[in-house]
Write a structure and sequence with these properties.
Helices cover 28% and strands 17% of the residues. Helix 1 (3-11) runs antiparallel to helix 4 and helix 2 runs antiparallel to helix 3 (31-40). The protein has helices at residues 3-11, 15-25, 31-40, 45-55, 66-70, 124-130, 182-194, 228-231, 299-308, 323-326, 356-364, 368-376, 406-416, 433-445, and strands spanning 77-80, 85-89, 104-109, 138-140, 145-147, 150-155, 161-166, 209-213, 216-220, 262-268, 272-277, 290-295, 313-314, 331-335, 421-423, 449-451. The longest helix is centred in the middle third of the chain and has 13 residues, at 182-194. It is built from 14 helices and 16 strands. A hairpin with a 3-residue loop joins strand 10 (262-268) and strand 11 (272-277). The strands form 5 sheets. The protein has a 5-stranded mixed beta sheet, with helices on both faces. The protein is globular. It has 452 residues and is an alpha+beta fold.
Length: 452
């Protein structure tokens, strides 16, 4: 271990970064987690490489990039099921190593639920379209966040203030918007705070984002938050950066713009959208000539289109209805354990669900094994009423798995004084969710509930 190098690193890093270096140097943190956490705290790749070299080899914990790069060719990934299975098309000349320039890509996608308002969008169909042109401060790198419109970021001593350095020379596609500056970021954040964005609500208050200069923004949070960069990244889909003048309620299809690689040239809310390359994109040139998005909410239609060659990719598909892909010799199935999950939300602010015992009774009436078999063909992990998947290193398997227990559910309802309950279960026509809704509806009957 090169202590001289480590001492130099300590002098040039803040308290949070020093703690991270100490944890890695003492062996309390693997190389993989050191790199991941260092990225969040804004450490540069050269800095982290220097620390790793100073601490010596850690080959057994070095992450492999094979899984990440295997699906990186545009159009190769057909989708994921409930958490474990994907399907990919056979690749062409580009699969050998060098992508082939040119051609059109046709993508089957869920139909956007309404106008493409970047602030208010709340569905997969809208996210996919908007993110072709608009970008985030933090993008997606090799399995984690990476620089996007922000080149770097760093926290103060306790993580309550974060400073982001922005890219310069970035142009908006609409010349009337001018050049991308810190003012665009500040205006975007003010719109998101006013709309009570789910990721930023309670984390950032009005006036909490200020421009220190045209290429620097400073976030003063309501409390220390060591994961703040995630909240302004691709993991918080509504935080795409829009122009300063892009008021809340502005529809992307009515006012196309963005800093990203693709320019919207055609949009029909019923049929699809067409994008062509943005020749002024800061990231360079793209390999495709055009991308067409084909809208459909019917899984069988999407799958038939892919099998028949009408489309090249599906954003997401389910095991229910995806048999033609999963069982076809023309497609290669790649099993990958992920954190993709389904949630059932109950209103806890009014009505009978305000009582925790009623919510617990609802959880006890569900047959999770049946759901796994019927919805995911037995390939999914059973959820335990939280979104923390077994793939995470901090997953705690000591919590007993909740199972179907009708008598236990009825006992809880008796304690809560509830003899009957009627409620409306809203379910979108997306992937296996309609089938999930029916299973939930039938399960609720066992405890005397009437779900419409």
């Amino acid at each position: 271990m090169d202590f001289k190098v480590l001492d130099g690193a300590r002098r040039n890093a803040g308290p949070l970064q020093v703690d991270l270096v100490e944890a890695y140097a003492s062996g309390r943190l693997s190389r993989r987690n050191f790199v991941k956490r260092g990225t969040i705290l804004g450490l540069s790749v050269p800095f982290m490489s220097t620390i790793i070299a100073a601490c010596g080899s850690d080959a057994k914990t070095t992450p492999t990039t094979a899984a990440a790069s295997a699906g990186s060719t545009a159009g190769s990934t057909a989708g994921t099921t409930g958490g474990t299975t994907g399907a990919s098309t056979a690749t062409t000349a580009g699969a050998a190593g060098t992508p082939v320039k040119g051609g059109n890509l046709k993508i089957a996608s869920q139909t956007p639920s309404g106008p493409l308002d970047p602030v208010a969008m709340a569905d997969l169909g809208s996210y996919g379209i908007v993110a072709q042109s608009f970008e985030f401060l933090c993008a997606l790198g090799d399995g984690d966040i990476a620089p996007g419109l922000a080149l770097s970021w760093s926290p103060n001593e306790d993580g309550s203030v974060w400073t982001f350095k922005l890219r310069t020379g970035v142009k908006w596609q609409n010349s009337a918007s001018g050049a991308f500056t810190a003012d665009d970021v500040v205006a975007t954040m003010e719109r998101l705070v006013a709309a009570k964005n789910a990721g930023l609500n309670g984390v950032l208050a009005a006036g909490g984002c200020v421009a220190k200069d045209p290429s620097t923004v400073e976030f003063t949070l309501t409390a220390a938050n060591g994961l703040f960069p995630y909240l302004v990244s691709v993991y918080n889909a509504q935080t795409v950066i829009t122009p300063k003048a892009y008021a809340t309620g502005t529809a992307f299809e009515a006012s196309p713009d963005g800093t990203g690689p693709w320019k919207l040239t055609k949009y029909d809310k019923s049929t699809g959208a067409t994008f062509v390359p943005n020749t002024d994109w800061w990231g360079g040139s793209v390999f495709l000539d055009q991308v067409d998005w084909v809208f459909s909410d019917d899984i069988s239609t999407q799958v038939s289109g892919l099998v028949g060659g009408a489309t090249d990719a599906i954003v997401q598909f389910s095991a229910v209805g995806g048999d033609a892909l999963l069982n076809s010799s023309d497609f290669t199935v790649i099993n990958s354990r992920t954190a993709n999950h389904r949630e059932i939300w109950m209103r806890c602010d009014k009505g009978q669900f305000t009582d925790k015992r009623v919510r617990q009774a609802f959880a006890l009436c569900l047959d999770r094994d049946l759901m796994n078999q019927q919805l995911f063909k037995g390939t999914a992990d059973i959820g335990n009423d939280h979104p923390i998947a077994p793939v995470y290193p901090y997953f705690d398997d000591s919590v007993p798995q909740r199972k179907k227990d009708i008598e236990g559910a009825k006992k809880l309802l008796a304690q809560a004084g509830v003899t009957s309950l009627k409620a409306v279960l809203n379910a979108p026509k997306l992937q296996e969710i309609p089938e999930l809704a029916v299973l939930v509806q039938n399960a609720a009957k066992d405890i005397g509930w009437d779900l419409t």
